[in-house]
Amino acid sequence: MTASLVNVAKKIGVSPATVSRAINNKPGVSAKTRQTVLETIKQLGIQLTSNTTGCRLVALVTPDLSNPIFPTFVTTITTLLAQEQELPVLCVYTLGGQTEETYLKMVTQFPLDGVIFLAGHYDNARMDHTIYQPLVDRNIPLAFLNASSHDQPGFYAETNDSQATEMALKHLCDLGHRKIGLLMGDRAHYPTMTKYHSALAYFKKEGIVHPSLLTQWTTYGIGSGQLAAQELIANGATAILCANDQLAIGALHAAHAMGKSVPQDLSVIGYDDSPLLTDVTPALTTVRQPVSMLSQALVHGLRLLRERMPSGSRKDVVTYTPELIVRESTGPAPRSQKQ
Fold it and tell me: How many domains does the chain fold into?
């Protein structure tokens, strides 16, 4: 039946999701389109079986769940989808396993009512963004989390990374820090790029000299964060602003390995406020993403896209304000290094 619905969708130029809604008498399909779908099914000799579950299928695409912020989003979004009678199809791509592109080729064979992306090619400037074109061509609604180039039709829900960076740096500057290290992720990752350029703009505004030795680029992870943070500490950083909580925990490990006390010798700020932090000592100051609001926006955004199908080239972007959570890992700059 799945292959048959795809054939019907191709023949009349709509998405498989539209065919599925027409067959199951769901909202979001005009009477004319529903009639065309039923007539085409009859012409092709397809035998229908009724959908007694009333569920819509929504693919939820996420990277490796080793970063706890992604399981948090997955749990929240799947709960919201279930409340809407929508069944999530979880697609977890990993470095050594299935790729995002492989999953997208697989899910296009199903009568999807939407796809939610928690990360992917779209949020990296170096990656191939054309992998989403088959979904766009089939008018499948797409919703994307976090900053990107916004070059695909769909709904985008983001945390204001510029605002997050500024509030974190202001906190450190108010504590007297001027030798502030930046521990960043992939150079081509749009959220990281935003944080980096926002930091440079803030330093310029405040008249703070930021030498290149006080920026380190690395992969997201605790181990990689520790190695990069050691370089920043060796280069004189009294505080480190990190692109996520994994890197921040790595920075705490680096301080411990180098005989530094946090926050007496080094202040550290993370980003996400992920479940990783429950067992971290000292308690980590971090920027909290509004997970609940972002998740609700993504689910609601899919609903809006369905209601105005076909959506064409329309792009909607909503941005949410983060919150700085001050804990024990930040303190006054060491007296000898205040400027």
Answer: 3
